[in-house]
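Reopening this one. Same input as before:
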Amino acid sequence: MPKKSFKIEINPEVIKYLRETSGWSIEEIAKKLKISIENYKEIEAGREFLTFQQIKQLSKLFQRPTSAFFLPQAPKELPISSAFRVLPKTEKRISKELLLAIRKAQYYQSIVNEIILDLNISFTPKIEKTKLEDNPIEVAIKERNESRIPIEKQYKFKDAYEAFNTWRKFIESKNILVFQFKFPLEDARGFSLMDTLPYVIVINSQDNILARIFTLFHEYAHLILGIPEIYIQDSDTSKEIEKWCDTFASEFLIPTKELEKNELFELLVKTEKVMPKIIENLSREFKVSKKAILTKLMLLNVLSYEDYEEQKAKIESKIESKKNQGKSIITPAKKCVQEKGEKFILTVLESKEKGLITTQDLLEFLSINYQNLDKLEKLLSKR
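Same output, byte for byte:
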């Protein structure tokens, strides 16, 4: 005779909180648990209880530890609005994967927040706040000059990965954490957190590596403006902010004075028509995506909005056709660096060296096992 699974009394507000912050509807969870919607509503009302097996099942669905269900009350995590300006009715459109990425970013952000308090160090972002009324091109030129990364060095990056890692290190030097997480590209290419220290930029690791470079500086523009993403389509305010951020990123990565000196650009202007081969070569020279080149040309009025949309659609269709191609397997140490970035890892390692966290804490924060810790440190020493 099978054992009868016992039911456990837990705070219904905790269950509701875990479900909502994981992006699941009542209907979806009732179906997963194979119970009626009415029965599940009774659970969140506190009139019925979950079995331990059901808790384990929900733990996997919500991607939370089972211990989260036994909290005395629902935690006060930062709202989704810390990453996006979201209306309640539009928040439902955010996928479970994006919600998880936001939670992970907030979790790692909170780790560093505690560490910097313990270490008594400053993590104030080294940025100069600007306003939407300021000229994004002038701001970008100033920022680029302060980066001390000349255009000649940009041209000499051996590949897109060296380019991304160099720009990432530059952003991290400003006391900004840069993470890479996987979530649907149709949801977002990236987002930023600025409600508390340290500031965070999250890049979608599903994206093309060259496209991630543009996203990095688009999100950086949001930080210097002090304005998070606006997750509302077709609003005038949203369009104005997004255009400002695109213009900043475009000028920073593809300085107009350098582009205008380029023979390929001159040829493009003379022919007065889109030449995919030239777009591709400019992309290769500046180490940015072809879409970034198209954006720059549109902002310079070399390309009409209609031509921009047409060429962008062609590029995105090619990317879509390559999406399912095999990907190389990376080591746990390399994955840790790619996902969390040097700034986060070095801050956590310093905390361990000074005895502020345990080895177990270190391994948990870095999501690696002890055998890979030495490999991680060796990898960092080579960078």
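So the earlier flakiness isn't reproducible anymore. For the record, The two ends are 60 Å apart (CA to CA).
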